Target: Cytidylate kinase
Amino acid sequence: MENGAAPTAKPVIVAIDGPSGTGKSSTSKAVAAQLGLSYLDTGAQYRAITWWMVHNGIDLADPTAVAAVAGKPEIVSGTDPSAPTITVDGVDVAAPIRTQEVTSRVSAVSAVPEVRTRITELQRSLAAGAERGIVVEGRDIGTTVLPDADLKVFLTASPEARAARRSGELKGADLHATREALVKRDAADSSRKTSPLAKADDAVEVDTTELTLAQVIECVVTLVEEKRAAK
Ligand code: DC
Model:
């Protein structure tokens, strides 16, 4: 038996939403690894479809053109939290989906309803197939993708803290420019018509501004264990 979970434990579905720079990915991966659950980074899926559109010269300013090809790329996510993977038509895109070119375009692509329908289907089927359960991180997981999740967490942090974390990740990128880009992307993600970034009514909000990563992980692990015990 791995990680101490009983073999008969019912799968547990955890939704972790919030804007960028709140520690969502690091927290979600660590919680999944610690509890023996699968892990899905839904932002990586939106980045992957954006990468494919850029790579294939699709006009991203034209939502009709984006919608017309939304079903074309085959996006496959590996859900092991210790080594998550993402491929598009068999190509490993883990690195290219993190480029500035993709980051600056992903909000436009992910606002197209046909793109969201396609990616949401993938997410639901991965969650349904996770034998021991899954931690799914994104923007609309608790509200739209998995509204019946056992636990919903909404991570927040001040824009200053989020920009500081992101600039650290980007190895000393300009703090002011990072903050501006982050606030702009959040505004686009929160104001789009189809399933915007939003906290579900039944989500537990955790403000991570003054917390260390270890503290956030511990907090979420405790919340999951409480839900598991109550199942
Ligand atoms: O988490 P991230 O920064 O890698 O996400 C990239 C973009 O993908 C984000 O700006 C909005 C979009 N996204 C989304 O629309 N819905 C999700 N569930 C996850 C990400």
User: Anything to note?
Assistant: Residues 12-226 form a domain with the Rossmann fold fold (CATH 3.40.50.300). Residues 75 and 122 are 8 Å apart (CA to CA). Residues 213-230 form the longest helix (18 residues). The chain has one domain: 12-226.
